Amino acid sequence: xxxxxxxxxxxxxxxxxxxxxxxxxxxxxxxxxxxxxxxxxxxxxxxxxxxxxxxxxxxxxxxxxxxxxxxxxxxxxxxxxxxxxxxxxxxxxxxxxxxxxxxxxxxxxxxxxxxxxxxxxxxxxxxxxxxxxxxxxxxxxxxxxxxxxxxxxxxxxxxxxxxxxxxxxxxxxxxxxxxxxxxxxxxxxxxxxxxxxxxxxxxxxxxxxxxxxxxxxxxxxxxxxxxxxxxxxxxxxxxxxxxxxxxxxxxxxxxxxxxxxxxxxxxxxxxxxxxxxxxxxxxxxxxxxxxxxxxxxxxxxxxxxxxxxxxxxxxxxxxxxxxxxxxxxxxxxxxxxxxxxxxxxx
Length: 346
Description:
Elements: E1 10-15, H1 24-41, E2 45-48, H2 60-68, E3 75-82, H3 88-102, E4 106-111, H4 118-125, H5 137-147, E5 157-159, E6 162-164, E7 180-182, H6 186-194, E8 198-201, E9 204-206, H7 220-234, E10 243-245, E11 249-251, H8 257-270, E12 283-285, E13 289-291, H9 293-301, E14 311-315, H10 322-339
Parallel strand pairs: 1-2, 1-14, 2-3, 3-4, 4-7, 7-8, 8-10, 11-13
Antiparallel strand pairs: 5-6, 9-12
Helix pairs in contact: 1-2, 1-10, 2-3, 3-5, 6-7, 9-10
């Protein structure tokens, strides 16, 4: 079995936080309970995915504000906030506020690009500026500048009884160094590195070669590895720059026979999309890893990109029940993590 070049230092998990339209509070409460469980199990981080106009968490910053008051140690992240839906100045204020409430545990992950189904939502989202909005890297740069304390206005001082600042308030020390970019392409990896961000790489990449051209024989692990190396080669910290990998991992050590059957069926339905690039963007998906912790650890040790990272945020499947997540997280923390050389925090 190949051994990883970097011992696993940080173990996290990612959830979408699904809920029933008829009882949305219960779904959000389940997400908070899962984060609390993650802290008790010793996970280093918990991350929330982002969904708009769907039955998943639409406001992860608000949910993490609640989670910050129920936990004391675990890091809290977003993977990722699509900035096309956000005003960078307002988001900078929210992020700094939650970071302060959490005691400096927030790890905001963001991405750029137009909102999904933009033609159908632009009249509600940007009724007066839909055709003028910039959904490229400049939007992320604006957010970074504001979080890192660059002026938002040329006005500051006292006006009557009110005091005004030229920077976003509050400012949270250290938050600027905990900003993450979620990317699946060489261009994103390079941009994140050049701007001193951390890099989130998931179970989806663009099927591209070393120069960003379409790959004729795409291999997920090798493409992801090229992104990690491109990111670090452009980052001021070089090999010390932080990268977190987010594959879908489902250990079955303590699962019931019914749970194992459900997990295997789930992965089987998603396997066809992993065999070739999908859609005009030529997206390539990694296979879901289902099996005992020993089996999953062996597959990860053989994964070229995994061997380059020392942080992971394993993605939980989107459609399972609360008790399934409890079993999966417990097995990750007690079986898979130790098999990868990780030790629980606290």
